[in-house]
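Regression test case RT-17, inverse folding.

Input:
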């Protein structure tokens, strides 16, 4: 017996995970992506897998479950070369920030999160290329964290979905949602194509609210921009995501480093942005990673992060509208594999996930 026809809108980290699981469990899946798979918010993500500052605890637990799901997915798909899980390092220099960091460590330790304070010397044994200010006496090490090479992950997920019969169709912007009374029956696109379906899953990232509006649903979604800077290759042994004062950075393959300066996230779109060139952020990171001195900026990307207005996930169906399901969250990379499992169980088996009770779209309706 064949499964239902399901349209998944969006082929980023979330959409690819949802499409793979649905196809694996027998649904006839069509993935519609306005551009190239992975070319939206996922392709401009720092892709740090973590539950470091995810509060309250129910949200923290979802993120730790997402981290576990990444490991299981990598094993399931043959090893997962996209998943880098060597831990992360963080430290602060100013007294107030150091006190806040210590509070975070204590909270996470009390929640059972793998976290420890190590000496700067021990941190440099893990990452010899780091420079840590002399007055810093403690560095946070989070051994279960890491990062994802998102394009590789999305490619693998969609390839495995296609082997199970899924159609992946780039270049399709959804412009209409087909309804029959209180039930969604499919979508139309700007090319004039019509895709009938038993269910539509809105994984459209920053356009999630626009797609929902086509179905007659108003949901509040913020679009939060962030700039990532990519260096030309440098000779470095860096392996982990690093959160140093005011900046974060990690390896990005073939010797490249991807980095961001925190203050720039709040200033990039203000008048006078030209006064904050990427080289300025590169110099800020080079203080902590001296091998970047003299390095060249190769590219920048500005990603628009889709974040529900309360900064918590929005996952589930819409009361009174059958066949329309939303999956939207910040931390789409960390949570993507979990969302695949959750959406599949709820859509195909009708089994609501109790962990999602505080995070349903209905809280905004």
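Golden output:
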């Amino acid at each position: 017996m064949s499964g239902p026809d399901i349209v998944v809108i969006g082929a980023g980290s979330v959409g690819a995970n949802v499409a793979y699981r649905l196809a694996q469990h027998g649904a006839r899946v069509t993935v519609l992506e306005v551009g190239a798979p992975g070319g939206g918010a996922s392709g401009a993500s720092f892709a740090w897998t973590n539950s470091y500052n995810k509060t309250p605890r129910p949200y923290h637990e979802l993120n730790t479950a997402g981290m576990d799901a990444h490991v299981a997915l990598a094993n399931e798909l043959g090893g997962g070369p996209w998943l880098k899980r060597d831990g992360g390092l963080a430290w602060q220099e100013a007294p107030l920030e150091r006190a806040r960091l210590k509070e975070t460590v204590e909270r996470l330790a009390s929640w059972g999160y793998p976290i420890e304070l190590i000496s700067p010397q021990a941190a440099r044994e893990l990452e010899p290329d780091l420079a840590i200010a002399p007055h810093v006496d403690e560095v946070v090490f989070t051994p279960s964290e890491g990062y994802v090479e998102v394009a590789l992950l999305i490619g693998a997920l969609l390839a495995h979905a296609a082997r199970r019969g899924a159609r992946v169709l780039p270049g399709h912007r959804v412009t209409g949602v087909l309804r029959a009374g209180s039930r969604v029956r499919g979508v139309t696109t700007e090319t004039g194509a019509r895709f009938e379906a038993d269910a539509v899953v809105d994984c459209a990232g920053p356009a999630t609210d626009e797609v929902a509006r086509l179905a007659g649903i108003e949901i509040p979604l913020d679009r939060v921009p962030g700039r990532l800077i990519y260096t030309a290759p440098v000779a470095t042994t860096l392996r982990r995501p690093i959160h140093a004062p005011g900046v974060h950075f990690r390896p990005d393959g073939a010797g490249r480093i991807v980095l961001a300066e925190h203050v720039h996230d709040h200033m990039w779109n203000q008048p006078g942005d030209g006064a904050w060139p990427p080289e300025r952020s590169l110099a800020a990171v080079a203080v902590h990673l001296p091998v970047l001195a003299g390095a060249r900026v190769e590219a920048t990307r500005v990603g628009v992060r889709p974040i529900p207005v309360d900064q918590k996930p929005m996952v589930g169906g819409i009361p009174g509208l059958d066949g329309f399901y939303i999956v939207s969250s910040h931390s789409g990379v960390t949570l993507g594999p979990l969302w695949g499992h959750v959406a599949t169980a709820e859509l195909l088996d009708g089994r609501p996930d109790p962990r999602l009770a505080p995070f349903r779209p209905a809280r905004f309706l």
